[in-house]
């Protein structure tokens, strides 16, 4: 599946909608329809706080709004789960262990583990020496220091 932000586009929506229509036809299903419009009870119609809900003109526009709301919710939940303060440090540790350290990682390591690291140059030497731990048979990852 594509990244959730990339599926939030009119082009992707059109692709999904066309798939729904074609599969409905193939499977001999009823085409999607708008739900029946329901009126508010009279006592609520006279209230000043009651507002009429939006009435969609066609089912495609109603489904499109629901689709975009769902994608927005998905992106927000993924951000909440995976963009936590400690996650960046874990990603840096992963890159150190896999030998794919990036230049920005040096600053994160220096700030996070300053008690154990005396200087930037010693940290770079230590990271370079980690490559000696890899097996000789396995290709070594490229360093981005």
Summed up:
The chain is mainly alpha-helical and 145 residues long. Helices cover 55% and strands 0% of the residues.
Can you characterise this structure?
The chain is an all-alpha fold and 145 residues long. It has two domains: 1-34 and 55-83, no CATH class; 85-133, no CATH class. It is built from six helices and no strands. The protein has helices at 10-26, 42-45, 59-82, 85-98, 103-112, 120-130. The longest helix is centred in the middle third of the chain and has 24 residues, at 59-82. The mean pLDDT is 77.
Number of beta-strand segments: 0
- The domain tally reads 2
Fraction of residues in helix:
55-70%
Strand content: under 5%
> What is the arithmetic mean of pLDDT?
77
**So how many helices?**
6
Structural Rg: 27 Å
Rounded to the nearest angstrom, the distance between the terminal CA atoms is: 32 Å
> Which H/E pattern describes the elements?
HHHHHH
Structural class by SSE content: mainly alpha
Main sheet properties: none
Overall 3D form: elongated
Uncertain segments: none
Keywords for this entry:
145 residues; mainly alpha; 6 helices; 55% helix; 0% strand
SSE order and pairing:
Layout: H1 10-26, H2 42-45, H3 59-82, H4 85-98, H5 103-112, H6 120-130
């Amino acid at each position: 599946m594509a990244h959730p932000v990339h599926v939030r586009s009119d082009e992707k929506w059109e692709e999904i909608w066309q798939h729904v229509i074609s599969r409905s036809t193939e499977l001999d299903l009823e085409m999607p329809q708008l739900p029946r419009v329901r009126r508010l009870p009279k006592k609520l119609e006279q209230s000043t706080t009651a507002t009429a809900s939006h009435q969609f003109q066609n089912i495609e526009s109603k489904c499109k709004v629901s689709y975009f709301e769902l994608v927005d919710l998905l992106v927000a939940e993924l951000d909440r789960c995976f963009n936590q303060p400690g996650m960046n440090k874990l990603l840096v540790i992963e890159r150190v262990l896999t030998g794919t350290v990036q230049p920005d990682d040096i600053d994160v390591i220096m700030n996070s583990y300053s008690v154990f690291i005396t200087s930037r140059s010693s940290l770079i030497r230590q990271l370079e020496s980690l490559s000696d731990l890899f097996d000789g048979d396995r290709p070594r990852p490229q360093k981005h220091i």
